[in-house]
Amino acid sequence: MKSIKSLLVVALIVSAFAANAQSKIAHINSGKLMEMMPELKAVQDSLETISTEYQSVLSSIEAEVTNKQKYWADNPSSNPTILELREKEYQELITRYQTTQQMAQKDVSKKQEQMIQPIIDRLKETIIQVAKEKGYDYVLDSTEGGGLIYGAPSDDLMNAVKKKLGIE
Q1: Facing residues of 139 across strands?
Q2: Strand pairing partners for 148?
Q3: pTM of the model
Q4: Residue 156 backbone dihedrals phi, psi, to 5 degrees
Q5: DSSP for the chain?
Q6: What residues contact 115, with CB distance under 8 A and at least 6 apart?
Q7: In angstroms, what is the C-alpha Rg of the chain?
Q8: Which of 74, 69, 99 is nearest to 87 (CA)?
Q9: CA distances from 124 to 23, 75, 120, 148 (A)
Q10: Nearest to 65 by CA among 25, 24, 96, 42
Q11: How far is Cα 137 from Cα 22, in angstroms, rounded to an integer?
C-alpha cells in the first residue's frame, strides 16, 4: 500500500512540474543542416583549389630534395666542407618545406573560417527566426557536442542571480 501512495505522490509532483513547465523545446542537427546548404559546396571547392596550389608548391620542394639526394648519391664527396655544404643545403630545403607547409595550413584554416562564418551566422539567424515564429523557448543542437542554439530572453536568470549574489 505504501508503494502505491509513493507512486501517487511522485505522479502528483511530476504533473505539478509539468503543468508549471510550459516551455516549448525543439532540437535540430545543425551539422547535418549545414552539410545540405549549397553555399558549403562552394566553400569546399574554393578551399580545395587553394590546397591544391599549396600542394603543388610542396611537391616541387619534395622533387628538389629528391633530385639533390640523387645528385649527391651519384657524386659522392669525402671533402668535409662539401659534405657540410650539402647538409646545410638539405636542412634549408627541409626548413623551407616545413615553413611552406605551416603557412599553407594557417592560410587554408584562416580562409575556411572567413568563408564558413557567414554561413554559420545565416544558419543560426534562420534557426532563431523559425524558433520565434513557432513559439519555441529553447532550441537545442543535436549535433554531437552541440548545445543551446536559442534561449528565450525572458527565461534568462542572469540578472536575478547577479542581484542575489550582490553583483552589480
Answers
A1: 26, 150
A2: 140
A3: 0.66
A4: -80, 120
A5: -HHHHHHHHHHHHHHHHHHH----EEEE-HHHHHHH-HHHHHHHHHHHHHHHHHHHHHHHHHHHHHHHHHHHHHS----HHHHHHHHHHHHHHHHHHHHHHHHHHHHHHHHHHHHHHHHHHHHHHHHHHHHHHTT-SEEEE-STT--EEEE-GGG--HHHHHHHHT--
A6: 43, 46, 47
A7: 30
A8: 69
A9: 20, 63, 6, 11
A10: 96
A11: 9
Per-residue pLDDT in tens (0 to 9) along the chain, 168 residues: 455 554 444 444 444 444 445 778 888 888 888 888 889 999 999 999 999 999 999 999 999 999 999 999 999 999 999 999 999 999 999 999 999 999 999 999 999 999 999 999 998 999 889 988 988 888 888 888 777 787 777 766 778 777 878 877
Distance CA 138, CA 25 (A): 5
Identify the residue whose cell numbers are 523559425: 130
